[in-house]
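Per your request, structure below.
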């Protein structure tokens, strides 16, 4: 029996050497074990490429892990500062001007704002890739994420610059300093609150619409608190509710709506139109 098997295998190899085909080439369910050095052996057809998933991206995972670690450590070290800011939010003490942020507290807020900008860019990328059926002109995923994040960074910088110029023009330095501190603190809190929702979106397959709804609630609370502090800092003494509404719409809502239009224009420019 061993000799018959050996003769059969030798016959198959001789047939492949002469014709370039083996006995099993026509059978899609079988694969012959061909020794090294025999040419013409087919390994099969290539399958479809695995589609890109942001949850399986190592670089994105490392970035989100770094954000999680940084936020956890920063919040733990700055918990006293956060508690003090929360206590003094609706009732500012008379010596509030004497209480200034330390370098570590200021660094904590800036880091949280940058993390929030990164997360906003990531969410924008996910939303754009899931809702726009056309491919983008920018083929690299990281480049597209960077463009989205850079757009949010430009939005924050321009908004704060315009608000600072207007505040310096109409109000004194004392109120301007309070307003800048408020803007920085609320932006830092917003960035920290975004992280859990982004993690749910990336790794737990949450719907991007649900995550955007949660982020819209966070944004609404941010704007509501901003409206209150705008009245409390600038117009509380003269009871200017109408002035507060106009100031808030001009320096908070108008830039936000303009950014939404700019984002739509950018995505329309970046997508490939057939």
């Amino acid at each position: 029996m061993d000799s018959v098997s050996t003769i059969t295998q030798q016959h198959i190899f001789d047939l492949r050497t002469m014709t370039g085909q083996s006995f099993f080439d026509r059978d899609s369910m079988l694969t012959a074990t061909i020794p090294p050095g025999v040419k013409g052996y087919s390994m099969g057809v290539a399958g479809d490429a695995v589609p890109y998933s942001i949850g399986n991206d190592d670089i994105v995972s490392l970035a989100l892990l770094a954000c999680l670690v940084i936020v956890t450590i920063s919040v733990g070290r700055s918990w006293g500062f956060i508690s003090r800011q929360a206590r003094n939010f609706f009732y500012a003490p008379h010596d509030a001007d004497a209480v200034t942020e330390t370098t570590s507290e200021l660094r904590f807020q800036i880091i949280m704002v940058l993390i929030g900008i990164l997360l906003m860019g990531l969410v924008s990328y996910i939303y754009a890739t899931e809702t726009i059926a056309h491919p983008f002109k920018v083929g690299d995923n990281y480049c597209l994420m960077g463009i989205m994040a850079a757009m949010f960074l430009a939005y924050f910088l321009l908004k704060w610059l315009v608000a600072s110029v207007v505040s310096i023009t109409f109000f004194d330095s004392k109120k301007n300093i309070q307003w800048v501190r408020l803007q920085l603190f609320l932006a830092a809190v917003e960035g920290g609150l975004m992280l859990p929702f982004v993690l749910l979106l990336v790794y737990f397959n949450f719907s991007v619409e649900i995550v955007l709804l949660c982020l819209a609630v966070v944004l609404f609370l941010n704007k509501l608190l901003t409206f209150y502090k705008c009245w409390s800092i600038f117009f509380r003494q003269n009871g200017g509710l109408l002035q507060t509404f106009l100031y808030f719409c001009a320096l908070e809502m108008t830039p936000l709506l303009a950014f939404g239009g700019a984002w739509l224009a950018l995505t329309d420019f970046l997508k490939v139109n057939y």
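The radius of gyration is 30 Å.

Regards,
D.
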